[in-house]
Structures are given as structure tokens and as C-alpha cells.
Design goal:
Layout: H1 3-31, H2 34-61, H3 64-94, H4 108-117
């Protein structure tokens, strides 16, 4: 088996695993109860799935110019996915979509109360 055939086989494996993780994320979003469970089901496999898809694409293309761009895309995904899902979860908590009774640790209630106390009041 040549190097190209082995790289193509590894790329196909990465693509299949990325597709499975995407399917698992979709099923988790449909099946998990509540906003936080659905966010968790979408965020975890999505990050690994996109990295596996990028790795498969890098193994398939085998060109330094393209691989360097794929590495930048992967780094950007690793930096932005956790932050964006955290902000979605926080917005869901602030709008009342999350049941605080289901949380083990609730640090946001104190933050919300402090921000309500420090909110500028309209003149009058």
C-alpha cells in the first residue's frame, strides 16, 4: 500500500468519524431536555467533528498552502466555539430559558442581582 492510498484511507476514516459526530450532535439536540443539555450536545461533537473533517481534508489535499489555511480554520474554531456556546447559554439563562433548580452550581444569580443593582437609573 502506497503513502497516497494510506493517506486517502485515513482521510476517509476522518470524514466518516466527522459525519458520525455531526449525526450524534443532531440527535442530541433533538433528544436532550432543556437548553443547556442541547447546547452541550451540539458543542462537544461539533468541535471534534470539524477538526476531524479538516484533518481529513488536509490528508486528502496534501499541499502546504491548503494545510496551513486549514490549520488556521481549526484554530479559529477552537477559539470561537466555546465562547459562542457560552454566550448562547448565558443569554438563555438571562432570558429565563434555563431552570435554575436543575443546576448544581448557580453563579449567575448573584451576577444578575449585582448587575440589576448597578444598572443606571433614568433621571427623574
Amino acid at each position: 500500500m502506497s503513502w497516497e492510498q494510506l493517506a486517502d484511507l485515513a482521510a476517509a476514516t476522518c470524514f466518516l468519524l466527522a459525519g458520525f459526530l455531526t449525526l450524534a450532535a443532531g440527535v442530541g439536540v433533538l433528544r436532550f431536555p432543556g437548553l443547556l443539555g442541547r447546547i452541550h450536545a451540539a458543542a462537544k461533537p461539533q468541535g471534534l467533528g470539524i477538526l476531524l473533517a479538516l484533518l481529513g481534508l488536509a490528508l486528502r489535499l496534501r499541499d502546504v498552502r491548503y494545510v496551513s489555511i486549514l490549520v488556521l480554520v481549526g484554530l479559529f474554531q477552537l477559539l470561537t466555539v466555546p465562547v459562542s456556546f457560552h454566550l448562547v447559554a448565558r443569554a438563555g439563562y438571562r432570558t429565563g430559558k434555563v431552570d435554575p433548580a436543575g443546576l448544581v452550581v448557580d453563579e449567575l444569580t448573584a451576577d444578575l442581582e449585582n448587575s440589576a443593582d448597578n444598572r443606571p437609573r433614568p433621571p427623574g
